[in-house]
Amino acid sequence: MRKIMFLAIAMMLFIGSAMAQDQQQRGNRGPANPEQRLKMRMERLSQLNLTDEQKAKVEALYKDQDAQMSKLREQQSGGDRETMRANFEKMRTEQDAKMKAILTPEQYAKFTEMNKNMGPRGGMGFRGADQKAQGEVKEKAAEVKVDASQAATATDKAAAKAAKKAAAKKAKEEAKLKKAAEEAK
Asked: Which of 26, 52, 103, 152 has the fewest Cβ atoms within 10 Å of its own Cβ atom?
């Protein structure tokens, strides 16, 4: 009975540790409130050298977007995910058109370039980082005049290397946990 209890506690500690490491790797980002999101967005847009008038319009646009997103989430909670996704995509398209009207053509071009490096949910999540890595591999391939198949192979190798590294880290943590459990016996 003691062994089972110990193993249960050890597993909870391991899971808690893994979750904490994941949180740390993501930059300790929890759910941001609308004010924090607005501040982060405006800091990111500082690269565009917005005028005061543009800043005011963009802030209003982002506040409106947050309000609309919250309203959509409330209306469609528990509903059809595909419908919700389509509605969010429609809203994003509308917001993008409004942003294009606020920014100069040069600013908008830089804005869209900045957003290419962002993940699907506006952050540098796993997919966003993977897309960025793939883009970097393609850029390097273009520099050294590598054909598409060779670039794809390099991208696959980079992804395999990252997966292997993650698996090794997980195995190392599991070995530590197993060792701790054996020492406790």
From this structure: 52
